[in-house]
């Protein structure tokens, strides 16, 4: 269990500095993500299931999807261990949470979103490490 806890802290350290797409703040500052929203379970030898439940600052569609995308892209790039990643909106915090959950956990839709230059630029700005 200690290992899973360490992994969760590691995950949180990666996502807490992601910037909000509309504000100059980080997701940590806005409490979109907190340490308790990260859950890590060991599912195999050296492989972990990482579950993140985030709370959008406003129940506003496109932004929640975008934040989910930022979380996924940054973790795909930065997580140093083998993992499966599931990202959800905290229950009851969004009008179309089911749709968004489907969208941000669908590899093809994520890939398609990242092919959109405008979207990709926003994601890149949000996931860039603070100087």
Give the number of domains: 1
Mean pLDDT across every amino acid position: 91
In N-to-C order, the SSE pattern is HEEHEHHH
Oligomer: single chain
- Topology-level CATH name: GMP Synthetase, Chain A, domain 3
Strand order of the largest sheet: 1-2-3
> Could you give me the name of the CATH homologous superfamily?
Fe-S cluster assembly (FSCA)
β content, as a range?
Answer: 15-25%
Main pleated-sheet profile: 3 strands, mixed
> In terms of per-residue confidence, which ranges show pLDDT below 50 for 5 or more consecutive residues?
none
Class by alpha and beta content: alpha+beta
The percent of residues in helical segments reads 40-55%
Q: How big is the Rg?
A: 14 Å
Distance from N terminus to C terminus (CA atoms, Å) equals 34 Å
CATH class, named Alpha Beta
CATH architecture, by name, is 2-Layer Sandwich
Total number of beta strands:
3
What is the molecular shape? globular
Q: So how many helices?
A: 5
Family: Belongs to the MIP18 family.
GO biological process, one term: chromosome segregation
Keywords: Chromosome partition
Subunit structure: Monomer and homodimer. Component of the CIA complex. Interacts with CIAO1. Interacts with IREB2. Interacts with APAF1.
Key terms:
MIP18; 131 residues; alpha+beta; single chain; GMP Synthetase, Chain A, domain 3; 3-stranded mixed sheet; FSCA_dom_sf; 18% strand
Structural summary, described in words:
With 131 residues, the protein is α+β, with helices and mostly antiparallel strands. It has one domain (1-127): Fe-S cluster assembly (FSCA) (GMP Synthetase, Chain A, domain 3, 2-Layer Sandwich). Helices cover 45% and strands 18% of the residues. The protein is built from 5 helices and 3 strands, in the order H-E-E-H-E-H-H-H. The protein has a 3-stranded mixed sheet. The longest helix is centred in the middle third of the chain and has 18 residues, at 61-78. The protein is globular and about 40 Å long. The N and C termini lie far apart (34 Å). The mean pLDDT is 91.
